[in-house]
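Support request from a user on the community tier.

User writes: "When I paste my structure tokens into the form, the page sometimes reloads and wipes my input. The last time it worked, I copied everything first. Here is what I submitted, just in case something in the input itself triggers the reload:"
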């Protein structure tokens, strides 16, 4: 969503930058013609100093607008970067919670497959009727697997609750304000 906001904000900013570049060219062209005019006069130095001062003042306005555009773009990039970081943290938290559940599930599958003959040939050669002890063992393993899964889910909920409490007790600190264009010197 933030990428769409930046894409929507880019063309006006880019168009404004082009306008400012054109203004800068016009200011420089006006200064060059004024300087040429000054050189044709008798009192050259005072005229050139006036032309330079006018050029500096005009360029200063353009620089302030460019600085404001740069500041807005920097703020937008900061917002997008913070959103990406928050998304990565959320995904990392989900993964850290899901890993124990997946590990227990893989262990349960491995244990159940280890209890059966390894190959299809062995299974076909020795038909096996489950005895009461085998059935009890299978039920006990299934019960233990369900219990481990339930414990893992309870642990995941506990971690989420603790993380939510921590986030509520320690709110995110606002970043320092960006200095204005006048403080750039």
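"...and here is what came back when it finally went through:"
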């Amino acid at each position: 969503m933030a990428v769409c906001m930046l894409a929507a904000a880019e063309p006006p900013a880019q168009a404004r930058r082009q306008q400012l570049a054109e203004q800068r060219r016009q200011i420089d062209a006006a200064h060059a013609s004024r300087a040429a005019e000054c050189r044709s006069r008798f009192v050259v130095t005072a005229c050139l100093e006036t032309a330079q001062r006018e050029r500096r003042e005009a360029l200063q306005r353009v620089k302030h607008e460019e600085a404001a555009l740069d500041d807005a773009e920097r703020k937008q990039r900061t917002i997008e970067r913070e959103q990406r970081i928050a998304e990565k943290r959320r995904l990392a938290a989900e993964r850290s919670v899901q890993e124990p559940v997946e590990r227990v599930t893989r262990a349960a599958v491995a244990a159940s497959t280890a209890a059966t003959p390894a190959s299809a040939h062995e299974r076909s050669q020795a038909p096996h009727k489950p005895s009461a002890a085998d059935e009890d063992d299978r039920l006990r393993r299934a019960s233990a697997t369900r219990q481990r899964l339930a414990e893992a889910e309870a642990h995941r909920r506990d971690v989420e609750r603790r993380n939510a409490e921590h986030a509520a007790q320690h709110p995110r600190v606002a970043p320092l304000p960006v200095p204005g264009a006048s403080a750039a010197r």
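Agent notes: The reload is a front-end session timeout and is unrelated to the input. Residues 22-100+141-157 form one domain. The CA atoms of residues 135 and 170 lie 52 Å apart. Escalated to web team.
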